[in-house]
Amino acid sequence: MRVSVPATSANMGPGFDTLGIALKMKNQVVIKPSKFHSVSLKGEGSNNPALKDNNMFISIFNDFYHNLSTKRRNFRFEFFNEVPMSRGLGSSSAVIVSAIASAYAIEGIDLPKKKLLNLALAYENHPDNITPAVMGGFNVATVQDNEVKFIKKDMPKYLKAIVVIPNRPISTHMSRKTLPYKYSKDDAVYNLSHSSLLTAAFMTENWEMLRVASLDKFHQKYRMKQMPELFEVQKASLKAGSLMSTLSGSGSTFFSIAHADDAKRIEKELRVKFPHFRVFITDFDNYGARVDK
Ligand SMILES: Nc1ncnc2c1ncn2[C@@H]1O[C@H](COP(=O)(O)OP(=O)(O)OP(=O)(O)O)[C@@H](O)[C@H]1O
Ligand SMILES: N[C@@H](CCO)C(=O)O
Protein backbone atom coordinates (compact mmCIF):
# COMPACT_ATOMS: atom_id res chain seq x y z
CA MET A 1 0.00 0.00 0.00
CA ARG A 2 1.28 3.45 -0.92
CA VAL A 3 0.20 6.83 0.49
CA SER A 4 1.41 10.15 -0.87
CA VAL A 5 0.78 13.69 0.35
CA PRO A 6 1.93 16.93 -1.34
CA ALA A 7 4.02 19.78 0.01
CA THR A 8 2.11 22.97 0.74
CA SER A 9 2.79 26.67 0.97
CA ALA A 10 0.69 28.38 3.65
CA ASN A 11 -0.29 31.99 4.40
CA MET A 12 0.51 33.25 0.87
CA GLY A 13 1.28 36.67 2.36
CA PRO A 14 -1.74 38.12 4.18
CA GLY A 15 -3.76 34.90 4.66
CA PHE A 16 -2.12 34.00 7.96
CA ASP A 17 -3.40 30.59 9.16
CA THR A 18 -6.04 30.72 6.39
CA LEU A 19 -4.71 30.37 2.82
CA GLY A 20 -2.62 27.54 1.40
CA ILE A 21 -1.73 25.84 -1.85
CA ALA A 22 -0.46 22.35 -2.76
CA LEU A 23 2.73 21.77 -4.77
CA LYS A 24 3.83 18.86 -6.92
CA MET A 25 6.49 17.71 -4.45
CA LYS A 26 5.42 14.90 -2.19
CA ASN A 27 6.22 12.56 0.66
CA GLN A 28 5.36 8.94 -0.03
CA VAL A 29 5.26 5.95 2.25
CA VAL A 30 4.97 2.30 1.23
CA ILE A 31 3.73 0.05 4.03
CA LYS A 32 3.98 -3.73 4.01
CA PRO A 33 3.01 -6.24 6.72
CA SER A 34 6.20 -7.78 8.03
CA LYS A 35 7.47 -10.10 10.77
CA PHE A 36 9.30 -7.23 12.48
CA HIS A 37 8.87 -3.47 12.64
CA SER A 38 11.36 -1.71 10.36
CA VAL A 39 11.85 1.71 8.76
CA SER A 40 13.76 2.79 5.65
CA LEU A 41 14.15 6.40 4.64
CA LYS A 42 15.11 7.94 1.28
CA GLY A 43 15.30 11.61 0.33
CA GLU A 44 14.67 14.40 2.85
CA GLY A 45 15.54 13.38 6.40
CA SER A 46 17.50 10.30 5.33
CA ASN A 47 20.66 11.70 6.97
CA ASN A 48 18.82 12.00 10.29
CA PRO A 49 19.11 8.64 12.08
CA ALA A 50 16.72 9.81 14.82
CA LEU A 51 13.88 9.67 12.29
CA LYS A 52 14.22 5.90 12.14
CA ASP A 53 13.52 5.55 15.88
CA ASN A 54 11.56 8.57 16.89
CA ASN A 55 9.36 9.40 13.97
CA MET A 56 6.21 11.54 14.15
CA PHE A 57 4.65 9.44 11.37
CA ILE A 58 5.06 6.16 13.28
CA SER A 59 3.67 7.58 16.50
CA ILE A 60 0.53 9.06 14.82
CA PHE A 61 0.10 5.90 12.71
CA ASN A 62 0.27 3.76 15.90
CA ASP A 63 -2.27 5.97 17.71
CA PHE A 64 -4.80 5.37 14.94
CA TYR A 65 -3.86 1.78 14.12
CA HIS A 66 -4.22 0.68 17.74
CA ASN A 67 -7.64 2.30 17.91
CA LEU A 68 -8.85 0.86 14.62
CA SER A 69 -7.45 -2.66 14.85
CA THR A 70 -7.59 -5.48 17.37
CA LYS A 71 -4.69 -7.22 15.57
CA ARG A 72 -1.11 -6.39 16.48
CA ARG A 73 0.69 -6.72 13.16
CA ASN A 74 4.18 -5.40 12.46
CA PHE A 75 4.97 -3.36 9.37
CA ARG A 76 7.84 -2.28 7.18
CA PHE A 77 7.63 1.47 6.46
CA GLU A 78 9.50 2.75 3.39
CA PHE A 79 9.58 6.54 3.23
CA PHE A 80 10.42 8.51 0.08
CA ASN A 81 10.47 12.16 1.14
CA GLU A 82 10.64 15.16 -1.16
CA VAL A 83 9.36 17.71 1.36
CA PRO A 84 12.25 19.31 3.26
CA MET A 85 11.77 19.46 7.03
CA SER A 86 11.07 22.76 8.79
CA ARG A 87 11.42 24.87 5.64
CA GLY A 88 7.83 26.15 5.48
CA LEU A 89 6.68 23.60 2.92
CA GLY A 90 4.26 21.74 5.15
CA SER A 91 6.45 18.78 6.13
CA SER A 92 4.56 18.29 9.40
CA SER A 93 1.17 18.36 7.62
CA ALA A 94 2.39 15.82 5.08
CA VAL A 95 3.45 13.52 7.93
CA ILE A 96 0.22 13.96 9.92
CA VAL A 97 -2.06 13.45 6.92
CA SER A 98 -0.13 10.47 5.55
CA ALA A 99 0.04 8.73 8.95
CA ILE A 100 -3.73 8.98 9.51
CA ALA A 101 -4.58 7.97 5.91
CA SER A 102 -2.17 5.00 6.19
CA ALA A 103 -3.69 3.64 9.42
CA TYR A 104 -7.17 3.60 7.87
CA ALA A 105 -5.97 2.20 4.54
CA ILE A 106 -3.98 -0.66 6.11
CA GLU A 107 -7.15 -1.71 7.93
CA GLY A 108 -9.17 -1.43 4.70
CA ILE A 109 -11.42 1.24 6.24
CA ASP A 110 -12.71 3.89 3.88
CA LEU A 111 -11.73 7.40 4.99
CA PRO A 112 -13.47 10.29 3.17
CA LYS A 113 -11.17 13.26 2.61
CA LYS A 114 -13.27 15.60 4.77
CA LYS A 115 -12.97 13.20 7.70
CA LEU A 116 -9.20 12.87 7.13
CA LEU A 117 -8.94 16.67 7.21
CA ASN A 118 -10.83 16.96 10.48
CA LEU A 119 -8.78 14.18 12.10
CA ALA A 120 -5.58 15.98 11.05
CA LEU A 121 -6.83 19.13 12.78
CA ALA A 122 -6.18 17.51 16.15
CA TYR A 123 -2.44 17.57 15.35
CA GLU A 124 -2.18 20.96 13.60
CA ASN A 125 -4.76 23.46 14.78
CA HIS A 126 -4.45 25.92 11.90
CA PRO A 127 -5.98 24.58 8.67
CA ASP A 128 -3.87 26.37 6.05
CA ASN A 129 -1.39 23.52 5.44
CA ILE A 130 -3.53 20.46 6.16
CA THR A 131 -6.36 21.57 3.83
CA PRO A 132 -4.30 21.72 0.60
CA ALA A 133 -2.31 18.66 1.78
CA VAL A 134 -5.56 16.68 1.83
CA MET A 135 -7.51 18.35 -0.99
CA GLY A 136 -4.84 19.74 -3.36
CA GLY A 137 -5.21 23.11 -5.11
CA PHE A 138 -5.55 26.58 -3.60
CA ASN A 139 -7.67 26.65 -0.45
CA VAL A 140 -9.20 29.21 1.84
CA ALA A 141 -10.01 27.58 5.16
CA THR A 142 -11.22 28.33 8.66
CA VAL A 143 -12.11 26.27 11.72
CA GLN A 144 -15.64 26.53 13.05
CA ASP A 145 -16.98 24.30 15.85
CA ASN A 146 -13.90 22.04 15.56
CA GLU A 147 -14.45 21.48 11.84
CA VAL A 148 -12.52 22.78 8.86
CA LYS A 149 -14.70 24.82 6.50
CA PHE A 150 -12.96 25.44 3.21
CA ILE A 151 -13.34 26.34 -0.46
CA LYS A 152 -10.91 24.90 -2.99
CA LYS A 153 -9.87 26.14 -6.41
CA ASP A 154 -7.88 24.04 -8.89
CA MET A 155 -4.73 25.70 -10.18
CA PRO A 156 -4.20 26.03 -13.94
CA LYS A 157 -1.21 24.37 -15.64
CA TYR A 158 -0.02 27.66 -17.17
CA LEU A 159 1.10 28.91 -13.73
CA LYS A 160 4.19 27.56 -11.97
CA ALA A 161 5.65 27.88 -8.50
CA ILE A 162 9.28 28.85 -7.97
CA VAL A 163 10.70 27.91 -4.59
CA VAL A 164 13.88 29.22 -2.99
CA ILE A 165 14.88 26.92 -0.14
CA PRO A 166 17.54 28.16 2.29
CA ASN A 167 19.80 25.62 3.93
CA ARG A 168 18.75 26.74 7.42
CA PRO A 169 15.52 25.39 8.91
CA ILE A 170 12.98 27.47 10.83
CA SER A 171 10.66 25.63 13.20
CA THR A 172 7.02 26.74 13.06
CA HIS A 173 6.81 26.68 16.84
CA MET A 174 9.79 29.02 17.24
CA SER A 175 8.78 31.20 14.30
CA ARG A 176 5.31 31.85 15.78
CA LYS A 177 7.01 33.14 18.92
CA THR A 178 8.55 36.02 16.96
CA LEU A 179 5.10 37.41 16.11
CA PRO A 180 3.42 40.26 18.01
CA TYR A 181 0.89 39.35 20.66
CA LYS A 182 -1.53 42.06 19.47
CA TYR A 183 -2.12 43.93 16.19
CA SER A 184 -3.54 47.41 15.59
CA LYS A 185 -6.95 47.84 13.96
CA ASP A 186 -5.20 49.37 10.92
CA ASP A 187 -2.99 46.30 10.48
CA ALA A 188 -5.96 43.98 10.99
CA VAL A 189 -7.97 45.80 8.31
CA TYR A 190 -4.92 45.84 6.01
CA ASN A 191 -4.51 42.07 6.21
CA LEU A 192 -8.23 41.35 6.07
CA SER A 193 -8.64 43.40 2.89
CA HIS A 194 -5.52 42.01 1.22
CA SER A 195 -6.33 38.42 2.10
CA SER A 196 -9.90 38.87 0.78
CA LEU A 197 -8.58 40.45 -2.42
CA LEU A 198 -6.05 37.62 -2.85
CA THR A 199 -8.77 34.99 -2.43
CA ALA A 200 -11.00 36.77 -4.95
CA ALA A 201 -8.05 37.04 -7.36
CA PHE A 202 -7.45 33.27 -7.21
CA MET A 203 -11.12 32.42 -7.56
CA THR A 204 -11.57 34.70 -10.59
CA GLU A 205 -8.08 34.00 -12.06
CA ASN A 206 -7.23 37.69 -11.92
CA TRP A 207 -3.49 36.95 -11.68
CA GLU A 208 -2.32 40.53 -12.23
CA MET A 209 -3.94 41.43 -8.89
CA LEU A 210 -1.69 39.01 -6.94
CA ARG A 211 1.22 41.39 -6.51
CA VAL A 212 -0.78 43.94 -4.51
CA ALA A 213 -3.14 41.44 -2.91
CA SER A 214 -0.27 39.34 -1.48
CA LEU A 215 1.07 42.16 0.72
CA ASP A 216 1.07 41.43 4.44
CA LYS A 217 1.65 43.17 7.77
CA PHE A 218 1.00 40.26 10.14
CA HIS A 219 3.97 37.94 10.01
CA GLN A 220 6.46 38.10 7.14
CA LYS A 221 8.67 41.02 8.22
CA TYR A 222 8.99 39.68 11.79
CA ARG A 223 10.01 36.25 10.57
CA MET A 224 12.21 37.39 7.70
CA LYS A 225 14.34 39.46 10.14
CA GLN A 226 15.72 36.10 11.31
CA MET A 227 17.15 35.65 7.80
CA PRO A 228 17.41 39.16 6.28
CA GLU A 229 18.56 37.79 2.91
CA LEU A 230 14.94 36.74 2.38
CA PHE A 231 14.02 40.41 1.78
CA GLU A 232 16.47 40.31 -1.14
CA VAL A 233 14.96 37.08 -2.45
CA GLN A 234 11.48 38.62 -2.43
CA LYS A 235 12.68 41.79 -4.17
CA ALA A 236 14.63 39.87 -6.80
CA SER A 237 11.76 37.50 -7.55
CA LEU A 238 9.24 40.32 -8.04
CA LYS A 239 11.72 42.32 -10.11
CA ALA A 240 12.32 39.30 -12.32
CA GLY A 241 8.59 39.07 -13.05
CA SER A 242 6.90 36.87 -10.44
CA LEU A 243 3.20 37.53 -9.97
CA MET A 244 3.62 37.25 -6.19
CA SER A 245 6.41 36.26 -3.83
CA THR A 246 5.78 35.39 -0.18
CA LEU A 247 7.36 33.63 2.75
CA SER A 248 6.19 30.02 2.59
CA GLY A 249 4.41 29.03 5.81
CA SER A 250 6.59 29.98 8.74
CA GLY A 251 9.75 29.98 6.55
CA SER A 252 12.48 29.61 5.62
CA THR A 253 11.44 28.90 1.99
CA PHE A 254 10.36 31.71 -0.32
CA PHE A 255 7.46 30.89 -2.64
CA SER A 256 6.68 32.70 -5.89
CA ILE A 257 4.08 32.23 -8.61
CA ALA A 258 4.76 33.06 -12.26
CA HIS A 259 3.40 32.46 -15.73
CA ALA A 260 5.02 29.34 -17.20
CA ASP A 261 6.68 31.48 -19.91
CA ASP A 262 8.50 33.57 -17.27
CA ALA A 263 9.32 30.84 -14.75
CA LYS A 264 12.58 29.55 -16.31
CA ARG A 265 14.06 33.03 -16.52
CA ILE A 266 13.03 33.89 -12.95
CA GLU A 267 14.48 30.59 -11.70
CA LYS A 268 17.76 31.31 -13.49
CA GLU A 269 18.02 34.84 -12.09
CA LEU A 270 17.35 33.61 -8.55
CA ARG A 271 19.91 30.82 -8.92
CA VAL A 272 22.57 33.29 -10.02
CA LYS A 273 21.79 35.73 -7.19
CA PHE A 274 21.40 33.10 -4.46
CA PRO A 275 23.76 30.25 -5.38
CA HIS A 276 23.79 28.94 -1.79
CA PHE A 277 20.01 28.32 -1.80
CA ARG A 278 18.11 25.55 -3.63
CA VAL A 279 15.99 27.13 -6.36
CA PHE A 280 13.60 25.21 -8.58
CA ILE A 281 10.30 25.33 -10.45
CA THR A 282 7.42 23.07 -9.55
CA ASP A 283 3.85 22.58 -10.72
CA PHE A 284 0.81 22.82 -8.49
CA ASP A 285 -0.94 19.70 -7.25
CA ASN A 286 -4.71 19.62 -7.59
CA TYR A 287 -5.36 16.17 -6.12
CA GLY A 288 -3.95 16.19 -2.58
CA ALA A 289 -3.54 13.07 -0.45
CA ARG A 290 -3.62 9.83 -2.43
CA VAL A 291 -3.93 6.20 -1.30
CA ASP A 292 -3.03 3.34 -3.67
CA LYS A 293 -3.96 -0.03 -2.21
N1 LIG B 1 9.57 13.21 6.95
C1 LIG B 1 9.33 13.39 8.25
N2 LIG B 1 9.33 12.34 9.09
C2 LIG B 1 9.07 12.52 10.39
N3 LIG B 1 8.82 13.69 10.97
C3 LIG B 1 8.83 14.77 10.20
C4 LIG B 1 9.07 14.68 8.79
N4 LIG B 1 8.99 15.90 8.25
C5 LIG B 1 8.71 16.73 9.28
N5 LIG B 1 8.61 16.07 10.44
C6 LIG B 1 8.29 16.65 11.76
O1 LIG B 1 7.74 17.93 11.57
C7 LIG B 1 8.57 18.93 12.18
C8 LIG B 1 8.63 20.15 11.30
O2 LIG B 1 7.41 20.83 11.42
P1 LIG B 1 7.31 22.40 11.26
O3 LIG B 1 5.87 22.74 11.41
O4 LIG B 1 8.30 23.07 12.15
O5 LIG B 1 7.80 22.67 9.78
P2 LIG B 1 7.06 22.54 8.40
O6 LIG B 1 5.77 21.78 8.57
O7 LIG B 1 8.02 21.98 7.42
O8 LIG B 1 6.79 24.06 8.04
P3 LIG B 1 5.43 24.90 7.83
O9 LIG B 1 4.41 24.39 8.82
O10 LIG B 1 5.84 26.32 8.10
O11 LIG B 1 5.02 24.69 6.43
C9 LIG B 1 9.93 18.26 12.32
O12 LIG B 1 10.65 18.81 13.39
C10 LIG B 1 9.55 16.81 12.57
O13 LIG B 1 9.17 16.64 13.94
N1 LIG C 1 0.06 29.52 9.30
C1 LIG C 1 1.18 28.82 9.86
C2 LIG C 1 1.82 27.99 8.77
C3 LIG C 1 2.95 27.16 9.26
O1 LIG C 1 2.50 25.97 9.81
C4 LIG C 1 2.18 29.85 10.39
O2 LIG C 1 2.41 30.83 9.69
O3 LIG C 1 2.72 29.67 11.48
From TrEMBL:
- List, for all copies, the residue spans of the domain called GHMP kinase C-terminal: 201-272
Point out the gene that encodes the protein. thrB
- Family that this chain belongs to: Belongs to the GHMP kinase family. Homoserine kinase subfamily.
So what does this one do? Answer: Catalyzes the ATP-dependent phosphorylation of L-homoserine to L-homoserine phosphate.
Alphabetical list of NCBIfam families matching this protein: thrB
Sorted alphabetically, the keyword list is: Amino-acid biosynthesis, ATP-binding, Cytoplasm, Kinase, Nucleotide-binding, Threonine biosynthesis, Transferase
Pathway(s) where this gene product acts: Amino-acid biosynthesis; L-threonine biosynthesis; L-threonine from L-aspartate: step 4/5
Location in the cell: Cytoplasm
- Gene Ontology cellular component annotations, sorted alphabetically: cytoplasm
Positions contributing to ATP binding = 84-94
- What PANTHER family does this protein map onto? HOMOSERINE KINASE (PTHR20861:SF1), HOMOSERINE/4-DIPHOSPHOCYTIDYL-2-C-METHYL-D-ERYTHRITOL KINASE (PTHR20861)
Protein name, as recorded: Homoserine kinase
**In this entry, which stretches build a coiled coil?**
none
Where is this protein chiefly located? cytoplasm
Q: Which reaction does it catalyse?
A: L-homoserine + ATP = O-phospho-L-homoserine + ADP + H(+)
